[in-house]
Amino acid sequence: MDLRGIVDLLSHHLYASPRVYVRELLQNAVDAITARRVLDPGAPGVVRIETGGGTLRVHDSGIGLTEQQVHELLATIGRSSKRDDLGFARHEFLGQFGIGLLSCFLVADEIRVSTRCGDAPAVEWVGHSDGHYEVGEGEARAEQGTTVTLVPRRGAEHWLRRETVVELARLFGSMLPIAVSVDGESMTTTLAPWQRDGDEPAGGRRARLDAYAEQVFGFRPFDVIDLDVPAAGLRGVAFVLPMPANPASRVAHRVYLKQMLLSESIEGLLPEWAFFVRCVVDTTELRPTASREALYEDGLLDQVRESLGGSLRGWLTALGRTDPRRLRLFLDVHHLGVKALAVHDDDMLRLIDQWWPFETNMGPLTLAEFRERYGVVRYIPSADEFRQLASVAAAQSIPVVNGGYVYDADLLRRLPGLGDGITTELLTANELAMRLDPLEPEAELAVRPFLTQAQRTLDPLGVEVLVRVFEPAGLPALYLLDSDTALQMDLRHGRDDADDLWSSILGSFTTSADSRPQLVFNHRNPLVRRAATLGDEHLVALAVEGLYVQALLLGHQPLRPADTAALNQSFLGLLERAMGESR
Ligand SMILES: Nc1ncnc2c1ncn2[C@@H]1O[C@H](COP(=O)(O)OP(=O)(O)OP(=O)(O)O)[C@@H](O)[C@H]1O
């Protein structure tokens, strides 16, 4: 068979980079040692890699191959000694597909395998990338095991250089339980992040993990969370990011399979909401895809995802119980993620309820604190409306929460679902207007002429005029526009400006009720009282327009061209009157 097509397939479609050849060689060496130790548990376990001299040599003290196995296993694509009689991957091995050795053709033109199994004579197999191979008598080997020699392809020599091999052997093999060396230098670390050493001093493990996260992920973790899913033979550590993460960004984790690095960028290991951690895990049971760069989506992976999500949730709730100050610090950075989660998860909603300070018109308070002080959780679902109403509501002693930030209105709506007799209530501009005190009948009668004239002045601007008594007395008028009315106004404007078809479509959304924004004059305000008793109609009109625009500005409302015209008219008119009088 001509292997060139197969090599092309592997390099362009299966493996992300030729660097995986080191992983595949290490993996075969480790598997061979595992196989030998099944028969002889005390057998040596070393992998020595040598560079230089124009080739790369990988020696292992593994089980080796007989001549018959060489013919059967090395000369046939897809043949593997690591599957059982039924064709299932055998649990103790890393390999299973019978194609890994071919990845060496990504960097080599020739692969030589010199091997001895037990007392059988040594054999040498030489395979070429064009598909032909020879099998012959091997050089005598003092030790049982295998040496794989790669003769580089032209242009691929750099993949076999010492520095590259050291880097790749460390990357893929540093956590292996078997000693790996390159030109005599050890590649294996003493302790993997998920391992514990009884002799390690208190705080020593945390310092070690912090250093690991900094080196591998580039950040000093806010905290570390141990992960353990026995069903998947999974152990690991989740590092909590110390900075906000974009919930939409790809979250990739480092996954080891039986302590050999599978990939640095495995997605889908955790639930989507867990974007605030990066993990390093080792698993014995999850299955890799043939490229070994992703995990096979199966029921076990689902189970792992759920269980790891549970560990993160458990960490969060425990933090709330044991160290609320740190939980607050965590929420400062990751509240968006936790809120996203709380939209569907009661435990997280409780956490937000207890620990996340909301903006309220009585200062920042958690919802639990708010309830304790004021009972009903009254909230305004839009930040603009909150800004408009907060101070007036406060002056009437109506405490209210700003539910206008991302997820907040959803969370507030869900809050009563937590039970414990929690009640919430929406506060709209209209409701606030209804809570302002009406005038005594006599006073009401006295202001009627003023009200009629004010209404006439503001009719062209589409505003309804009211007079009420409210705090603070220093505020002459309040502009109230709730979101429903604002929508209706937008639709009406759109309908007036649009062509027939579009305007009939918009018309079907507008309600027949004539909802207009309201300007509420404050009868407690001395200026308003004076204006109400003025006989001078022109001056009243100027004052009403001026107070109207001031109320708009206080309510952070945008000025339409008609509002700006009213502002000019009132300002210039009042100036003129003032100058005329002083003349
Ligand atoms: N160093 C080695 N010592 C002993 N046998 C080996 C060695 N390298 C390869 N083999 C044999 O060659 C077979 C094919 O190896 P190859 O790497 O192509 O596939 P695999 O390891 O079985 O599976 P995968 O494609 O998943 O890596 C192995 O199943 C094994 O029997």
Description of the molecule:
It is a single chain. This protein has 4 domains: 3-186, Histidine kinase-like ATPase, C-terminal domain (Heat Shock Protein 90), CATH 3.30.565.10; 202-321, Ribosomal Protein S5, domain 2; 356-433, Rossmann fold (3-Layer(aba) Sandwich), CATH 3.40.50; 437-481 and 517-582, Heat shock protein 90, C-terminal domain (Four Helix Bundle (Hemerythrin (Met), subunit A), Up-down Bundle), CATH 1.20.120.790. The protein is built from 18 helices and 21 strands. The chain has helices at 4-14, 20-39, 67-74, 162-173, 204-216, 299-322, 324-342, 346-355, 367-374, 383-395, 408-414, 429-435, 441-458, 483-497, 500-507, 526-533, 537-554, 561-582; strands spanning 46-50, 56-60, 108-116, 123-128, 133-137, 145-152, 179-182, 185-186, 223-229, 234-240, 253-257, 260-266, 277-283, 357-358, 365-366, 377-380, 401-402, 424-426, 464-468, 477-480, 518-522. The chain has an 8-stranded mixed beta sheet, covered by helices on one side. Helix 7 packs across helix 8, helix 14 (483-497) packs antiparallel against helix 15 and helix 17 packs across helix 18. The longest helix has 24 residues, at 299-322. The structure holds adenosine-5'-triphosphate. Adenosine-5'-triphosphate is lined by residues 24, 27-29, 32, 60, 62-65, 73-74, 80-82, 95-101, 146, 148.
